[in-house]
């Protein structure tokens, strides 16, 4: 009889997490500095800062929503597998 086992859960490595945070920090910093030094009026800079803020916030929200959807689908698949395993074990035994 084959029993259902949870796959090993492997998280992201510390090196990958460091790369993500460093990339985010560097890109955001360079964007803010780039906007600051643009030879334009203050209201155009404000518009670009606001756009950068909203784009960053919506990107973070989108990535969280995609991750939540993936976790939901994974949980549903695990539940279906567990139910199938339970039915099979009753049917075999």
Written overview of the protein:
With 93 residues, the protein is an all-alpha fold. Helix content is 80%, strand content 0%. It has 2 helices and no strands. Helix 1 (14-36) runs antiparallel to helix 2 (42-92). The radius of gyration is 23 Å and the shape is elongated.
Topology:
Blueprint: H1 14-36, H2 42-92
Keywords: Membrane, Transmembrane, Transmembrane helix
Pfam families: YiaAB (PF05360)
Domain YiaAB two helix: 16-68
Q: How many separate domains?
A: 1
Number of helices: 2
Number of strands: 0
**N-to-C SSE series?**
HH
Give the low-confidence spans: none
Helix content: over 70%
Computed over alpha carbons, the radius of gyration is 23 Å
What can be said about the biggest beta sheet?
none
Mean pLDDT over the full residue set: 88
Gross morphology: elongated
Distance between the termini: 10 Å
Going by helix content, strand content and strand pairing, the class is mainly alpha
Strand content: under 5%
How do you describe this structure in short?
The protein has 93 residues and is an all-alpha fold. It has helices at 14-36, 42-92. The longest helix has 51 residues, at 42-92.
List keywords for this structure.
elongated, transmembrane helix, mainly alpha, 2 helices, single chain, membrane, YiaA-like, 93 residues, YiaA/YiaB family inner membrane protein
